[in-house]
Design a protein that fits this description.
The chain is mostly helical. The protein has 17 helices and no strands. It has helices at residues 3-25, 37-58, 60-63, 66-69, 74-97, 102-117, 137-157, 171-183, 185-200, 206-213, 217-241, 243-253, 268-285, 289-305, 324-331, 348-353, 378-383. The mean pLDDT is 92.
Length: 397
């Protein structure tokens, strides 16, 4: 074989797995069982996350979130990483032996080998500075794994739309939103804290805050969620009723298929502005750290769950708390759903202010912005609010 032929063969051997994997990641639709594609995708995903985790072990000061790494058990994380490497390596190697989805599993196995070569679960972690700029890589890995394991299972057990695929249309765009929102968590928190202290610091009264902090935990937590939701309600309503603000919020509403990942689609400036508007009253009132942590857990769960493809019998609870049924109507483009159901936690707020959806239909017929004018793609959606020209929502009737 000539040198030219050898070079061409090598290029094909390298290019084919990468090309096929890239093409697969650009597709959508249901994955058929029995072909090795489902296990191949799992192996590829785990292999990629394992490689990211190894990098986080190497550079914890730059790639991990300070508030989270203070809570970590390094030994537990090492064991989880080892299990993930074994699962990803075993699945990809098994598929290669059985000659199923060969190119996809070659890429997955290479990612596993790269992670092991870089130290795997044995990367030493020594002392490192605590006040450095960072990306929330650890938060991305943990939240993606946890959300996938929990919410995909719930969606499959209690689906609202039974035929909806996990890899539905535009899932790639929403995964990019998910990743970027997690990676910039440090910048977002720094910006929010700066604005809170400089814009609202003068309103803080230590005596009043001490009174609030002496309320017992459960009533304080419920009050904390109520205050946050009232702030969320009026902020959210402003996004819908002020045309300039709608240009940013329309990014979130452009999702046409609702699932656990759909809530991640959000403009970065809206993300920061909403955090400031919601956290400002909590900061001023001085809720305890325990109550704030409880609120963060609740908002983190509901923000994902209420977008999920889930149907459950809520009974009278649907008038008290926000459920997926309630929030799906907010995202609907049906006439009766426009500018309705603003609350994030307590559904009774919308009933109190007269903005709850009233419809004879059980479920919405369609989702997304009316007119479907939002471009697909993370970058184009971030730039959309700054484009010239009016959106249909801003045009005169």
């Amino acid at each position: 074989m000539s040198e030219h032929s050898k070079r061409e063969a090598l290029e094909r051997a390298v290019k084919a797995p990468v090309t096929e994997t890239r093409e697969l990641l650009q597709r959508n639709g249901e994955l058929k069982p029995g072909l090795g594609r489902i296990s191949g995708v799992i192996a590829l995903s785990l292999g990629f996350l394992c490689l990211l985790a190894v990098l986080a072990f190497h550079f914890p000061q730059y790639l991990t979130t300070p508030d989270l790494r203070r809570q970590y058990s390094v030994d537990v994380l090492r064991q989880l990483l080892l299990v993930a490497l074994l699962v990803a390596g075993g699945m990809s190697l098994g598929n290669l032996i059985l000659n199923r989805q060969r190119n996809l599993n070659i890429v997955a196995f290479v990612l596993v080998i790269a992670a092991v070569a870089l130290g795997g679960a044995r990367v030493p972690v020594g002392e490192f500075p605590d006040h450095t700029p960072y990306l929330g890589l650890d938060w991305f890995i943990l939240d993606l794994l946890g959300s996938t394991l929990i919410f995909v299972v719930i969606e499959k057990l209690f689906p609202l739309y039974r035929g909806q695929a996990i890899f539905r249309k535009e899932w790639q765009t929403d995964l990019k939103h998910f990743a970027v929102n997690h990676f910039i968590v440090g910048l977002a928190l720094l910006t929010v804290n700066f604005l809170l202290h400089h814009l609202f610091g003068w309103l803080v009264s230590s005596d009043f805050q001490q009174t609030v902090q002496h309320i017992s935990f459960v009533p304080q937590l419920l009050l904390c969620v109520l205050v946050a939701d009232l702030a969320q309600y009026w902020t959210h309503r402003a996004y819908h009723e002020v045309p300039f603000l709608w240009r940013f919020h329309a990014v979130h509403h452009s999702v046409k298929t609702m699932d656990w990942l759909a809530g991640s689609r959000q403009h970065m400036l809206e993300l920061i502005a909403t955090r400031v508007c919601v956290l400002a009253p909590l900061y001023i009132l001085g809720f305890s750290e325990a109550a704030m942590n409880g609120y963060i857990l609740i908002v983190g769960f509901q923000a994902v769950f209420n977008h999920a493809n889930v149907r459950l019998p809520w009974g009278p609870l649907k008038y008290l708390i926000v459920t997926p049924d309630f929030h799906h109507w907010h995202h609907a483009s049906d006439d009766e759903a426009i500018d309705r159901n603003y609350a994030a936690h307590y559904a009774f707020i919308d009933y109190l202010f007269g903005t709850a959806v009233t419809s004879t239909k059980k479920f919405p017929e369609r989702y997304g912005v009316v007119g479907d004018y939002m471009p697909d793609g993370f970058v184009r959606q971030q730039l959309f609010p700054f484009r010239r020209g009016k959106t249909p929502a801003e045009s005169p009737e």
